[in-house]
């Protein structure tokens, strides 16, 4: 049977609740449809707010061919193939086909660049969906060719409107009487996400009783009972992996093992679990215990070599180790701070002393002048400036309060003095 969330997917702009700023009367997208000039766009918003649905509705209302790609699985070859298919669908002065790319932030620079020409010459109208800030995740060249529209989390009124529509229209509730006595937990657990609300309503409607009184306690109990209904292709997938990661980050090995067991029982790929553990080892444990990254990587390799079911023991050992390790996100914060500096100051010059000077002409321009070779010093260190002049003295890395990084702090202070 088709899931409730799919059965209730809006077919018109009027049915798309919670995004009136984009699709309501006199809104920007309605005007674009009326004018016949639909721009390429990036739809930015949290899960379950209608990004995919909006793309389908725009394609239907504008009567354009519609192609889709998932950035999780598509490569440059797939992008070029679908662009070729789109070009074959376009005739004379007809509007360009729509290419919808879900999770477009997962595309690397090469994949994003492969879209530029087709957008520029009108072969496609791109609609990309992302849950991440486009300013950080989408190439500036691609952003300059697309409008960014922000979709909002659904407020309580929109969620309740959808819940009432489900009860009134869906076959699941056709022979049932539903009374909304309390709705706070229904709204809280939905967390602004229409898909989550549909999943909860599907659980509620699946009860073999004719009269359903919705209360906070009833919703909580039903959702808890069905938490192990793990769909590795659906929204629950992201909720469970989120709980798993947060449990390790929170140094709770028992909870981490539980959520991993839920994933294993639900048929999750072991490779996916191992991959997320490697990311966590770098992001959340980091320099507090650099060995954690080695352990996580070794676990991933061992899992590939050993196979199932023995791999569960390897994963268990690694999860317990990671959960019990001291935690630090200093490396994560440091690179994000450096990236932000580069994005906000994209044209800072490399100091002359640090520039390579392979020719006499470059030497005449003072390339490399003043640079001091660190190993010429007895202690293999000579204080000098390595950052662009405009941001001299900027600190990106701040050692966290753990024994390992406090050693780094002492070393840096000995070398640099007040700079660190």
How would you characterize this protein structure?
- Helices cover 50% and strands 8% of the residues.
- It has 420 residues and is an alpha/beta fold.
- It has a 5-stranded parallel β-sheet with strand order 2-3-4-1-5, with helices on both faces.
- The radius of gyration is 27 Å and the shape is globular.
Outline of this structure?
The protein has about 425 residues and is of the alpha/beta class. It has helices spanning about 5, 20-25, 30-35, 50-60, 75-90, 110-120, 135, 140-145, 155-170, 185-190, 195-205, 215-225, 235-250, 255-265, 270-285, 290-305, 310-325, 330-345, 360-365, 405-415, and strands at about 40-45, 65-70, 100, 125-130, 145-150, 175-180, 210-215.
CATH architecture of the largest domain: 3-Layer(aba) Sandwich
* Spatial extent as radius of gyration: 27 Å
Number of domains: 4
SS-based class: alpha/beta
Shape from CA axes? globular
* Main beta-sheet annotation: 5 strands, parallel
How much strand?
A: 5-15%
Which stretches are poorly predicted, pLDDT < 50 over at least 5 residues?
A: none
Mean pLDDT: 88
Number of DSSP E strands = 7
Give the terminus-to-terminus CA distance.
62 Å
Helix content: 40-55%
**Count of helical regions:** 20
Give the strand line-up of the largest sheet.
Answer: 2-3-4-1-5
The CATH topology of the largest domain is given as Rossmann fold
| Helix-strand pattern | HHHEHEHEHEHHEHEHHEHHHHHHHHH
CATH superfamily of the largest domain: P-loop containing nucleotide triphosphate hydrolases
């Amino acid at each position: 049977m088709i899931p409730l969330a799919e059965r209730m997917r809006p077919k018109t702009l009027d049915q798309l609740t919670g995004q009136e700023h984009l699709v309501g009367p006199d809104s920007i997208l309605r005007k674009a449809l009326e004018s016949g000039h639909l721009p390429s766009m990036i739809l930015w918003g949290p899960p379950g707010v209608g990004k995919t649905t909006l793309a389908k509705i725009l394609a239907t209302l504008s009567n354009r061919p519609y192609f889709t790609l998932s950035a999780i699985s598509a490569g440059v070859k797939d992008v070029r193939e679908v662009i070729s298919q789109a070009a074959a669908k376009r005739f004379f002065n007809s509007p360009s086909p729509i290419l919808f790319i879900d999770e477009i932030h997962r595309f690397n620079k090469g994949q994003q660049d492969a879209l530029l020409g087709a957008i520029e010459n009108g072969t496609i109208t791109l609609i990309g969906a992302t849950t991440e800030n486009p300013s950080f995740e989408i190439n500036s060249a691609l952003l300059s060719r697309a409008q960014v529209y922000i979709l909002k989390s659904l407020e309580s009124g929109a969620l309740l409107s959808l819940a009432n529509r489900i009860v009134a229209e869906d076959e699941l509730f056709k022979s049932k009487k539903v009374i909304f006595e309390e709705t706070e937990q229904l709204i809280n657990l939905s967390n602004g996400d229409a898909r989550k609300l549909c999943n909860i309503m599907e659980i509620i409607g699946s009860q073999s009783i004719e009269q359903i009184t919705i209360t906070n306690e009833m919703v909580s109990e039903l959702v808890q009972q069905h938490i192990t209904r793990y769909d590795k292709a659906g929204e629950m997938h992201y909720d469970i992996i989120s709980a798993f990661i947060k449990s390790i980050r929170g140094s709770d090995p028992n909870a981490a093992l539980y959520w991993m067991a839920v994933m294993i029982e639900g048929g999750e790929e072991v490779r996916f679990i191992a991959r997320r553990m490697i990311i966590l080892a770098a992001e959340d444990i980091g320099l507090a215990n650099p060995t954690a990254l080695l352990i996580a990587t070794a676990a991933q390799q061992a899992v590939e070599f050993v196979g199932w079911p023995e791999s569960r023991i390897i994963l268990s050992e690694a999860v317990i180790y990671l959960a019990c390790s001291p935690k630090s996100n200093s490396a994560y914060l440091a690179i994000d701070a450096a990236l932000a500096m580069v994005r906000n100051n994209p044209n800072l010059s490399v100091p002359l002393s640090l520039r390579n000077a392979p020719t006499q002409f470059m030497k005449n321009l003072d390339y490399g002048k003043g640079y001091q070779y660190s190993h010429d010093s007895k202690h293999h260190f000579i204080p000098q400036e390595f950052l662009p002049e405009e941001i001299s003295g900027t600190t990106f890395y701040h050692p966290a309060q753990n024994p390992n990084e406090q050693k780094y702090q002492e070393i840096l202070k000995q070398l640099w003095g007040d700079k660190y």
